[in-house]
Amino acid sequence: MARELEEVKWEKFKLGDLFRIKSNLQLNKNSFIFSENGEYPYFTRTVFNNGILGNVHYLDEEHKLKGNCLAVGMIATRFFYMDKDFYAGQFTKRAIPIGFSLNSRLANYFITVLNKKSKIFQSSLVRNFEKVFKNEEVKLPVKNDGSIDFEFMTSFISELEARQISELEAYLVTTGLSDYVLTSEEEKFLEIFRENEVKWKRFKIGDLFEVNSYKKRFDANKVNILEEGHPYVVRTALNNGIRGYLKEDEEFLNEGNTISFGQDTATMFYQEKPYFTGDKIKIIKSKYKEFNKLNSHFFVSAMSKSFSTFAWGSSSFSINIIENQEIYLPIKNNEIVDFDWDKYINYLGRAKTPPAFDALDLSSGENQLFGDPTTDKKHFTNYSYQNSTQKGELAPKKIVNLMAPLRFLNYPSEKAKYFRIRHGSKDADTSLAISFIVAETLKQYDLIVDYAIPWDIPHSGDYDLEELFDWAMDVVSKTPSKSEAREIRVITD
Questions:
Q1: Disulfide engineering: 45 pairs with which of 73, 286, 332, 341, CB 3.0-4.6 Å?
Q2: Distances (CA, A) of 82 to 40, 66, 72, 394
Q3: DSSP secondary-structure letter at 25?
Q4: Residue 435 and residue 406: Cα distance in Å, rounded?
Q5: What are the phi and psi torsion angles at 207 (to 5°)?
Q6: Average pLDDT over residues 2-20
């Protein structure tokens, strides 16, 4: 293969000369009936499972899309090969070949080339994607006459596949696994999957793990790396992240039975024993005692997949980014069990003491909101004004009313018809009662309200973009009836 590559001629081609970009008709997942036996894939913006959210039954010919093309979601801009006819969700597009036909191997070649350019496509606005795509260039192998050598591309991928299979077979023979017979317990687990008893659910990493910084950074240029001692973990993807071993003050050892997370590289490894770290390493510690060496590999695989589309930069180093990233895990029952409400209340805590916003000592940011050019901070409630520890002034009633949005509902002017409100159940900054009152008041004015309480989401929670986009498209595509104003929902998945 290396010899052949040296002999290959390469030329640049504009993607607009190779593929035609087509938008898909706007349909959300609520338009379909999902089933394991559904004959059509439903493609959406997810980067998991080849971009397929699930299988659906036949809807109509109008929205059914012809297969043997490339599909792309407009969030991560990752390309996937759709070999058969399919339906697609909102904010998705197709790349249809011009003057040639795809096959699975040729498609894999183009997918590899295109996905390397994801960062370029992500940097453009959705409305500019087609223009950017058309003008972007790729290098492809050519024949002596300058035409694209599709045969070489197909054979190249075929050879890669054959090599991988050969290496796998050799590994199985070497390890004695080539003729391995499953145990009765292993057969049982397989049967569970066959019968579709296992469901999958999204979890935020921060709900499952504590994400901590290292106790001390050890500079590789300033330490003596040895053949024995405690593991020295850095951002390398090799040798489980271990560069060597150190004999340093054990006070600075990070806990074992944790996952080391290398920033910049998003390399993750299970560390069984206590270890020292180099630069930009986060320590991911499970909140559950059941975490161990065996199930850690499942978590590491899920997390690696989740971070695979990240374009790493300084903003991606934060603990908050890692905590809010989601992974898919198997569940047996889609419900909360053994729930202790008192423990949950203690777990939530609170961010502010009463009165939460109009602080008696004028220390709240909201107090400054009501200030003016001569007085930096003012009270805006009678209670805090009367009990002020700073002898603070009371903001004029007119200004207070301007900051109370519900008052504007009484105005005769035209109002927005659709409202989507999300208030995390773990929000310790604002009472759940506030959002509930807002939602119920809006409904009294016959406005359409989609109100939900995402489970265990804090004040800074990152809500489901997929659902948000679907809701927005519903709003602009139809006029819901009053009966569509949804009841209170607690989102647990």
A1: 73
A2: 11, 9, 10, 64
A3: P
A4: 11
A5: -80, -20
A6: 85
Asked, as a colleague might, if the bond just before 355 is cis with ω within 30 of 0, I would say yes
pLDDT band at 290 (very low <50, low <70, confident <90, very high): confident
- Please report the pLDDT score of residue 68 as a whole number: 94
Indicate the residue type of 236.
Answer: T
**Nearest CA-CA partner of 325 in 284, 292, 362:** 284
Question: Mean pLDDT throughout 2-7?
Answer: 65
User: How confident is the model at residue 170, as a pLDDT?
Assistant: 83
Alpha-carbon distance 152 to 140, whole Å? 10
Cα 263 from Cα 256, distance rounded (Å): 19
How long is the chain? 493
Report the C-alpha gap between 325 and 353 in whole angstroms.
30
In the chain, the domains with their CATH numbers are 2-152 (3.90.220.20), 203-331 (3.90.220.20), 336-403 (no CATH), 415-491 (no CATH)
Q: What is the mean pLDDT of residues 24-50?
A: 83
- Identify the three-state secondary structure at position 217: strand
Residue 425 pLDDT exceeds 60 = yes
Q: Could you tell me which residues are beta bridge partners of residue 286?
A: 209
**Which residue matches tokens 């905590």?**
323
Separation of alpha carbons 59 and 318, rounded Å = 44
For residue 126, the surrounding DSSP H or E stretch is none
As a whole number of angstroms, the distance between CA 120 and CA 128 comes to 12
**Which of the two residues, 467 and 322, has the higher pLDDT score?**
322
Dihedral of CA 234/238/241/242: which sign? negative
Of 359, 305, 334, 313, nearest to 491 by C-alpha is: 334
Assess contact for 362 and 388: CB atoms under 8 A. Answer: yes
Residue whose C-alpha is closest to residue 97's, from 201, 157, 22? 22
Pull the structure tokens for residue 429.
Answer: 């900054």
Q: Is the pTM of this model over 0.70?
A: no
Task: Provide the pLDDT for residue 111.
Answer: 93
Note the pLDDT of residue 370. 94
User: What 3-state DSSP class applies to 342?
Assistant: helix
Dist CA 155 CA 153 (whole Å) = 6
| Helix pair 104-115, 150-174: axis angle to 10 deg | 90
User: Mean pLDDT for the chain?
Assistant: 83
Going from the C-alpha of 134 to that of each of 11, 130, 173, 464, the distances in angstroms are 16, 6, 48, 31
Contact criterion met (CB below 8 Å) for 43 and 6: no
Partners of residue 217 on adjacent β-strands: 277
Per-residue pLDDT, 342: 61
**Cβ-contact 56, 33 below 8 angstroms:** yes
Residue 275's φ and ψ, nearest 5 degrees, are -150, 155
**The residue to which tokens 């509902």 are assigned:** 409
